[in-house]
From TrEMBL:
It comes from the Bacteria. Pfam families: Gcw_chp. InterPro entries: CHP02001 (IPR010239). Keywords: Signal. This is TorF family putative porin. The keyword Membrane does not apply. It comes from Acinetobacter chinensis. The lineage of its organism: Bacteria, Pseudomonadati, Pseudomonadota, Gammaproteobacteria, Moraxellales. Residues 1-23 form the signal peptide.
Length: 257
């Protein structure tokens, strides 16, 4: 059964309430070597690697992670989605992985590997799994900054049994003690053109450039305004289809807990 956006909004609030309850049990979790974290967000457009997943409409999103001191972790993330008529209305993704600090390397980057399962309840033909590997470098260029490099692979892109690779480079940096910061990213996606294409192409580039702000008065609350887009060919597309891939402004408000 498909869930409505309203129902998912209720689920987001429930997730936030659950986060408060989990925080109260933090001591019990830590005794087992476990830690809980999560977030809830509202965004003007859910963009995945530059392409809208909500037909350029707003989305509410939430996720949580349960991590062990060994480096193992598992969690789930969800958002409302819309791909047109008869499309699923919910994306609910479980994931599992392993994270560790590479102490032997001077900059001590964090290595993170795992499996992410893109899951659309009621539309199992769209479900697909992806392997990922990430390296995060802290204080790489400036105090408090972060460089993220990641590579992703699947042999079932968008549920059509197509091989696909994605690589991404991201950078975030605080602007001193102002609460403001900058976020930048560029990604490249390629897919088996015999089974899938991006308006005739087997690859595309996506990008993101924006400004963030962390609210000092509310712990874990942050805002982001970013320009997000792709170089996907738009000839022959409708206005709505062009909006889905062209550069647009996206505002997101996130509460971490």
């Amino acid at each position: 059964m498909k869930l409505s956006t309203q129902a998912f909004s209720v689920a987001v609030l429930s997730c936030m309430t659950a986060g408060t309850a989990m925080a109260a049990e933090d001591t019990a979790l830590s005794q087992m070597g476990l830690s809980f974290s999560g977030s809830a967000a509202a965004t003007s457009d859910y963009r995945f690697r530059g392409i809208t997943q909500t037909q350029s409409d707003p989305a509410v999103q939430a996720g949580f992670t349960l991590a062990h001191t060994s480096g193992l972790y598992a969690g789930a993330w969800g958002s409302n989605v819309s791909f047109g008529s008869d499309s699923p209305s919910l994306e609910l993704d479980p994931y599992i992985g392993y994270s560790t600090t590479l102490e032997a390397i001077g900059s001590k980057p964090v290595l993170d590997v795992g499996v992410w399962y893109y899951n659309y309840p009621g539309s199992s033909d769209l479900n697909w799994a992806e392997l990922y590997g990430k390296l995060t470098f802290k204080n790489a260029v400036a105090e408090g900054d972060s460089i993220l490099t990641n590579i992703n692979y699947t042999n079932d892109y968008a549920g059509v049994k197509a091989d696909s690779w994605n690589v991404n480079l991201g950078y975030s940096v605080p602007f001193g003690a102002t609460g403001f910061g900058g976020v930048f990213g560029v990604g490249y996606t390629t897919v088996d053109e015999d089974k899938y294409s991006f308006n005739g192409d087997d690859n595309y580039v996506d990008w993101k450039a924006g400004v963030t702000y962390g609210f000092k008065s509310v712990s874990g609350l942050s805002a982001e305004l970013a320009a997000i887009g792709t170089n996907t060919e738009t000839a022959g597309l409708t206005h709505a289809q062009k909006r889905a891939v062209e550069t647009g402004a996206v505002f997101t408000l996130t509460k971490a807990f």
